[in-house]
Fold this sequence. Notes:
Blueprint: H1 2-15, H2 25-38, H3 43-65, E1 68-72, E2 75-79, E3 85-86, H4 88-96, H5 102-109
Antiparallel strand pairs: 1-2, 2-3
Helix pairs in contact: 1-3, 2-3, 3-4, 3-5
Amino acid sequence: MRWAADTVTAMREGARLRLDYSARSLWSVDRAIEDIRREGAPYAAVEAVLRGFGAYAGEVIVRRTGGEWWASGGEHWVRTPDGRLWDPVEEARRCYTAEGSLRLLCRDASGGDG
């Protein structure tokens, strides 16, 4: 997904955060979102960054599980081979409110091995 690739590039160049599409890299993404939250940035100012982090996490899930992206009405989900739908973009928003974790979402979507 384009948002994921854009996020990888932006984080490498701007934040010096290396994202390699591994489940382990989602630890860094969760921490980056936590840092943004601690800085007190208003949601409107970070909405696009959160969408990018969510897309990146979704792409990690797709690559780990053999899933695929689904889109409808401007919303995007990942469908894993077991038929379940996952919403990594919403999970990134939940991370920003300290109620979610992209790392744990990936672990759950991957069947607990991550």
